[in-house]
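Structure ticket #2291
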Amino acid sequence: MAPQPGRSLQAVLSLEYFTVAFSFVVAVASIFFGTAALSMALVGFGLACLIESLSGLVLIWRLGNHENTPKDKFAGTERRVQQVVSAVFFLFGIYVLYESVNRIVIQEAAQPSPAGIIISLLLLIIMPILAWKKRVVGTVMGSRIVLANVKETIAFAVLSGAFLAGLLLNYLYGVWQADSFAGLVIAIFLFHEGYQTWCGSCGGCECSGEE
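Resolution: structure written out below.
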């Protein structure tokens, strides 16, 4: 028997509620420990997690209001929301890029961060599982919105790997520059996601399609 659409929608909403809560907790922890350790990679990663949480809220809003809002009004509101999220991506990307480069120039060394390593390991485990579950439910629903979000979750898991590599190089071998280079990777990720989100708001990306 085919899964009921209502149950599939509730399943993906439950996954998104978890994603939002988990990303927010990780964001707060990353920014806190990153500030203490002078780690731009950790602070930048926390900002990326904060936007991931915001993106999850946008998806929850889209799924919850798509059927109950007039199409023209919904499309206009969605476009404005996506543009705001895109602007936040770019602003955070500029900040992380500037701070990462500046710390290399002035040779400000980040302290090793065991807490950051634990956080990145958790994300490397949890994010692929979330992506797999979202893909299953999104395929059942036939929802391009959900399947597009899967790509973002996978990209975030890959980012976690780069983030972990930078922290490990600093922790194990004292290569403090690796922290700033990881920050540069995070900045590139933020710019890329900002661009993709902006394209989506203009109807120029696959993710802009309707369910």
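Closing remark: The two ends are 22 Å apart (CA to CA).
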